[in-house]
Amino acid sequence: MSRIIVNIISEQTIPNYLFVKEVFLPGDSLLFIASQKFSTRIDWIVKTLGISDISIESILFPEGGEERWVDMEFMLKEKLSSEHTYFVNLTGGTKYMSLLVQHVFETFSSSFYYIPYPQNILLQPLYNDSIPLKYRLSVHEYLSNYNVSFTEKKLIRDESYCDYFFDRFVNGSMDYKVLDLLRSYRNDKKRAIVSIETCKSTEKRPCIEGLADFLEDVHFQVTENGFLKRAEIEYLTGGWFEEYMFYKIQKNISPQDIKLSVLIQRTETSNLNDLDVVFVSGNKLFVIECKTGIAGVAMFNQTVYKASAIKEAVLGLSANTFIASLAQEDDNLRKTAKNMGVYYKCREDIDNPSRFESFMNQIKAIANN
């Protein structure tokens, strides 16, 4: 008998996707069951799967009708056949829908499964059995399952230079004023260093005397002699810390996948959101927003609100958002972030070896839970 993989679709699509990736064999067909409200999520899953030459069918219950047992039972039975074997994932949908699906499919050749996501376990309730999930998601797969497309940036400097810049920054052995003034040039595609040093100073374009000396002092080699390109300006004014955290996560966590400076766009909106470091570990998404400082409560609240809003609207319930700041420790800021569902790490959590180890262990614990 031919095999059909069955998923009940609801708001969270990752368990559905993982189920297909775990049990799918060449020649299988897919059947999705959902209310009209979540019908577009079927397209998200199918697009992410990218499987060609496969039979895909959907059963969509009308709005307001997903709790009319007799009508729903008829719609299901009309699609089913004794000529098929069904592998049924009961994870999604409402409890009412799950009960109905199990009730109907029990009259056919069916095996039932449940994924207690975010745990990476595939349960077979009827046999009291559990199977570890082997499949591991990429960042692209995770975001695509929420209809999110993105671009990413390339690394500017190697790990050793990021470590060097970090040490100079936290030890106070560099000119912070130059870095602050240089922020005014972040949107410039390319600027001659001498023009920045000698221009008529304005609020939008300040003159930065000694810029060339600063670059020499921090051993920053430009790719084009005498010029600073946009990517280099972005690096000097904060991108270095993003790359520093990228390398540390890569070394200490060994994530399934990791991306730097991700620019995301949900296809049904025009809103763009940038995420500093994004990685997947234990099939869970982690986002780290990197700040070289927090200039006051207003800026902190804005940062926390952004991180919380992106998590709620885009990244799914299993996403874990951290703010890594080089500002000094402040328990009030930590509590504010916690109340918004965001983890806050200050300079001491990053600069102090034992506290940084605790930070990394916290991520590992969440990933392995």
Characterization of this structure:
This protein is α/β, with parallel strands linked by helices. The protein has three domains: 2-135, Hypothetical protein VC1899 like domain (Restriction endonuclease-like) (Rossmann fold, 3-Layer(aba) Sandwich); 149-156 and 242-368, Trna Endonuclease, Chain: A, domain 1 (3-Layer(aba) Sandwich); 159-235, no CATH class. It has 14 helices and 15 strands. The strands form four sheets. A six-stranded mixed β-sheet has the order 8-11-12-13-14-15, with helices on both faces. A five-stranded parallel β-sheet has the order 3-2-1-4-5, sandwiched between helices. Strands 6-7 form a two-stranded antiparallel sheet. Helix 4 links the parallel strand 4 and strand 5. Helix 3 packs across helix 4 (95-105). The longest helix is centred in the middle third of the chain and has 24 residues, at 230-253. It is elongated and about 80 Å long. The mean pLDDT is 91.
